Write a sequence for this structure.
């Protein structure tokens, strides 16, 4: 297989490029937001449009096949076209989906999450991950009567203006007036911020471990979360865990459980319903009155189909112990890649959890070599981005893993020969 | 039928109430946001949960049947379970829905909207109506380098803190620092605001006509939009049409066309895909660079299923000339209701467009009588809210209309006898 791959003509993207040219006429940037292909380098190594998907693989519009390590940037934790989730969705939609009244499945889902997640006494559902993080901050402000939020410097909590980096187009200074940014793993910085703004801090928001784009991911240092929570408690500050990206990939009870701490609020989205659009905020009883006092809503927040999908997805993730499974698959894949890189004289750095690691190659050319490597993999059928977490799913089979490593080796050979 | 209805025992809500009690333990307010049943008065006249839905009707968990005039608060413009939209959705999802790459259907949808809507040169898709209004304001800020937005006093543009009324729990003064509110139809107030903040106003956002909750809806006065746009042009301010609620219920080319004006940006959501979750912002070429410069994204913004549903929905709405059809159905329904009220010695005031009117009864008890009337209708099988726009769909048949008027008459008799 190896020889065949090396000798194979790399994928061509004729139809992708033609579609992108059409798209650029009627869509800003052709494709906007985190799917914008400008981040996929070198130019010409990536396709832009998918035609169909199944399990851990998808096919682009030119018919090229990929073993996929993005899982749609997180959601497809059970793989594409998972029949258990899809059937639960279709069964509910055949009865009612978006309707004038809420659906009983909303209660089933809330009860299931409250039973599963120790930190959760209630649940609130929305659509975007940013809906959940915005809800969390609003509830913290309502509960404390305070207005400021502390966040990690390059932590990502959605694309609302207050969460976007300063200097991004359209973002104004006032958007950041009530956001204080501190470095990851820096307890003294948190303490200084809490002291400086004593009585004005409503919330501290952070992912359970630090997983920025374009940078190595970082685990919490020993005692970090303990020390953080002692400080938050002393200052009566609401602790928000943004588990939008890592949720259900580390621990079904909340990624915070793995790291040994208990936040007041946890934000979920991404993998909660295997691709059907729903996000959730869960929280403690102490914040239920505040959560009841705020007003937040959306046109499709009560759609029953995605709720039924979420319930089926969470049950299936529990049944197969998905976090352990995808962690184990991830370890096989990325340990294998590290070994292959080593045999070619390169150091591959893999950080973060094996179920959604961040990967880079140590090279004198900086990110350019790693971009070339990911590009060479992609145009051979192994879809990898060079700047973002990768995602493993429960649908990645041993055959997928073997193909992954074969292509990775071929790409390395092509690049270094 | 009339006698049978009068003599019928009104609906009971045993299962709804039991479910709501369960929900209240694990969900803030039991049901939060705009579906919160606290707005449905008098207590006991409304169900809380739907079991299934079809065409213009739905059935609650106690098995009670309703002719529905809420259409899920707007989305279900072709009625529940429309086979054309549902099949387009399912066909796409069987290939790929949420995936690592965008889908070609995104381009088809953008092209279709650009062809259909004269003000549109491009389209940007998201999930919530508030995503579209937030996108619009961000683009206006990016384009103008200014930070303030003018909005109508009680206009609703989603539940982001800057758009929520001051004093709502969690909303702080800073959220409103860059929002200036003026009364509807008040050109001098707009002029005064533009003069006072000359050079600092990025955008003016408004629905095409004024449709607040809890108040009569108001049409634009003669020359209003002309005068508004002369002022906006003079001050280089971006004109945002929030067509989230009225979109595709007045004019497929944009509700602004019906009222004879051309905004720079139009926000859509609600009825765009007959209940599948997608929103859209469309805009003029002059703002495409700004729309390309901003960064906005979301976990499910590229899901192909809702895009295929939107494309099928818009085509079907055009095929049947849905705005004319539902306007005509709405006229039959609400003219009929006005006549029935008159025969019972009551004045029913219907404002706004007949496809989504606001209704109230003139009565010395104020809103209480109208609430009682809507409650009596609902518990007989005609679902009406007393405080919000009602929505007519293309699925409302002559039989639905006749049943509507029969129940309305019965409710009036029960209330006034």
């Amino acid at each position: 297989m190896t020889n065949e791959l090396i000798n194979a003509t790399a994928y061509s993207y004729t139809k992708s490029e033609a579609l992108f040219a059409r798209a650029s006429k009627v869509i800003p940037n052709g494709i906007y937001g985190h799917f914008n292909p400008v981040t996929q380098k070198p130019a010409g190594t990536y396709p832009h449009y998918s035609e169909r998907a199944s399990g851990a693989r998808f096919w682009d519009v030119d018919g090229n096949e990929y073993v996929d390590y993005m899982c749609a940037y997180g959601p497809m934790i059970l793989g594409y076209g998972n029949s258990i989730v899809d059937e639960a969705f279709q069964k509910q939609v055949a009865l009612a989906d978006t309707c004038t009244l809420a659906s009983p499945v909303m209660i089933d889902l809330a009860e299931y999450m409250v039973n599963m997640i120790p930190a959760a006494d209630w649940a609130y559902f929305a659509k975007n991950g940013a809906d959940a993080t915005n809800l969390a901050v609003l509830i913290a402000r309502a509960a404390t009567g305070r207005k400021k939020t502390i966040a990690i410097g390059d932590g990502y909590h959605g694309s609302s203006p207050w969460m976007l980096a300063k200097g991004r187009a359209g973002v104004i200074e006032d958007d950041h007036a009530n956001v204080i940014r501190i470095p990851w793993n820096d307890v003294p910085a948190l303490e200084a911020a809490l002291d400086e703004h004593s009585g004005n801090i409503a919330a501290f928001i952070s992912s359970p471990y630090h997983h920025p784009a374009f940078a190595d991911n970082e685990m919490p240092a020993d005692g970090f979360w303990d020390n953080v929570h002692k400080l938050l408690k002393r200052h009566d500050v609401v602790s928000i865990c943004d588990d939008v990206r890592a949720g259900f990939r580390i621990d079904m009870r909340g990624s915070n459980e793995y790291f040994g701490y208990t936040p007041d609020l946890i934000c979920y989205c991404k993998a909660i319903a295997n691709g059907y659009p729903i996000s959730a905020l869960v929280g403690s009883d102490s914040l239920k009155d505040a959560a009841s006092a705020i007003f937040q809503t959306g046109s499709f927040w009560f759609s029953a189909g995605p709720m039924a999908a979420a319930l089926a997805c969470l049950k299936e993730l529990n049944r197969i112990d998905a976090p352990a499974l995808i962690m184990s698959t991830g370890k096989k894949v990325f340990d294998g890649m590290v070994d292959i890189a080593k045999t070619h004289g390169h150091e591959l750095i893999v950080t973060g959890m094996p179920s959604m690691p961040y990967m880079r190659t140590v090279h004198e050319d900086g990110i350019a070599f790693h971009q070339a490597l990911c590009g060479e993999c992609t145009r051979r059928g192994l879809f990898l981005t060079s700047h973002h977490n990768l995602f493993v799913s429960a649908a990645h089979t041993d055959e997928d893993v073997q193909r992954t490593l074969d292509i990775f080796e071929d790409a390395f050979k092509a690049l270094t020969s």
Chain B has two domains: 2-69+322-416, 83-319. The first helix of chain B runs from residue 2 to 7. The first strand of chain B starts at residue 50 and ends at 54. Chain B has a mean pLDDT of 96.
